[in-house]
Amino acid sequence: MAATLAEQLELSDAHEPDIDRCINKGVADRTFSAASCTASIGERVFHRSAHGSLQHPPPLRRIGNDTLFDLASLTKPLATGLAALWLSSRSQLDLGASITRTLPEFRHDRAFADITIDMLLDHTAGFPATKDFWKRVHENDLRTHPDHRIAGTQKARSKMLELLLETPLENRPGTKTVYSDIGYMVLGWVIEHVVGRPLDVWLTREIYRPLGIDNELFFVRLDDTRARQRLRRRNFAATEECAWRGRMLQGEVHDPNAWVLGGVAGHAGLFGTADAVWVLAHRLWQCYQGEDRFFLSGGVRRFWTRSRRTPGTTRTLGWDTPSANLSMSGKRFSLTSVGHLGFTGCSLWIDLSTGVIGVVLCNSAHPPPDGKQEAMSAFRPRVYDLIAKYGESQPKDPTKPTGAQAFYSGAGVGLSIPLHNPLRGPRKPGS
Question: pTM here?
Answer without folding.
Answer: 0.90
